[in-house]
């Protein structure tokens, strides 16, 4: 089984500092670490709706670096701090990035802490055939 790390342009230092991979390509799938609405320095965007939109922008940058788009996403997990209080504000922003049917599967999780963020999105995408890295010899 091969594992190939995918890092979007301009974010390498952030991932190295935090010691995790933004995404791993393996066996025809892309496993993307949870993405938050972080600014280039890693700090959270102060506005909730902007934070959600920025999380999608960060996610889409990783998907693009792997040769994918959100239409290749098959599974989504959303994490929200205090979802009862923020859901009505978050959901329209999520839907504006969601795309057309068929939709991915979805699991929503309420959490108490996200390192200063209020929203995080984690996905698994199916890699288009053209984006599979060559097998290691």
TrEMBL record:
Lineage: superkingdom: Bacteria
Gene3D superfamilies linked: RutC-like
Entries under CDD domains matching the protein: YjgH_like
Name the UniProt record assigns to this protein: Enamine deaminase RidA (YjgF/YER057c/UK114 family)
